[in-house]
Amino acid sequence: MDVESLIKRKITATYVTTAVASVILAYWYMADGMKAGTPYDLGKGFLSWVFVYSMYAGAIVLIYGSLVSVGIEYLQRRRFIKHTWLYVLLHGFFGLLNGLFFQETAFAVVGMVAASFYAVIDRWLYVRDKVQQSSKLFWLFPLLACGLLCGYFQLLSEPVPPFSKEDAVEFATDGEGTATEYFPKYIGKADEMIHGYHVERETSAKEIGKETYIITFTERWKKGKEKGSWSLSYEVERQSLTIYGDEGTYPPYYQ
């Protein structure tokens, strides 16, 4: 057995199987997402899901699938398996078995189809290797398919709306149980009395870059001659929020 040729063939079969399976699964996921109304950056989303599926599928195919395939090929070379259809069928069986281990019918079916596809690609590569034909096409085709589908989804995407100061404030004040939950969820001020203190809370926004803002929450209090203030700032972008700074004395009525 030519070990180098065997390794190259199994790696190529792993790559093709992983790439094709990931592209198909990502396509199904994006198609469902479009029905649910996710119209922005579809091409980027498609590539992200291809990467996610590739991480999981690649590990399973490379470790489990390749070891099983080497074992089946060993039996074939020992004449225990004489027919190509049986070679493919055994791959499908072990792919189904792996899916059943996770007790998921859909996963089992996907595993069986992927394993059978792996076996077909493996036998195809084996025949081409015998007549010294290149396997470059097997490496290029999944990349081409992925690129075309990414372009297709990007063409279907709607332009991303601008991220305004108001959007940044909404993002920064979203959620309960945070330090900002009592502040206005808009740019402006609000007053109330807490344990005899007159409390003024203000939410303000300042643009520091393209769709990047500093959202500041300022709390001022006064009770007789006692007074003070405290503020907390966040740097907010479309999908990220980080603490920018804080200053002042924490209000006594929270202690």
How would you sum up this structure, described in words?
The longest helix is centred in the N-terminal third of the chain and has 36 residues, at 42-77. Helix 1 (3-35) packs antiparallel against helix 2 (42-77), helix 1 (3-35) crosses helix 4 and helix 1 packs parallel to helix 5 (136-156). Helices cover 56% and strands 21% of the residues. It is elongated, with a radius of gyration of 29 Å. The mean pLDDT is 87. A five-stranded antiparallel beta sheet has the order 1-2-3-4-5, covered by helices on one side. It has six helices and five strands, in the order ααααααβββββ. The chain is α+β, with helices and mostly antiparallel strands and 255 residues long.
State the total count of DSSP E strands: 5
The main pleated sheet reads as: 5 strands, antiparallel
Number of helices: 6
What structural class do you assign from the helix and strand content?
A: alpha+beta
**SSE run:** HHHHHHEEEEE
Distance between the termini: 76 Å
> Low-confidence stretches at least 5 residues in length (pLDDT < 50)?
none
Helical content band: 55-70%
Strand content: 15-25%
- Summarize model confidence as the mean pLDDT: 87
Strand arrangement within the widest β-sheet reads 1-2-3-4-5
What is the CA-based Rg, rounded?
A: 29 Å
Shape: elongated
In short:
This protein has 255 residues and is of the alpha+beta class. The chain has helices spanning 3-35, 42-77, 84-101, 105-130, 136-156, 165-172; strands at residues 188-194, 197-209, 212-223, 226-237, 240-248. Helix content is 56%, strand content 21%.
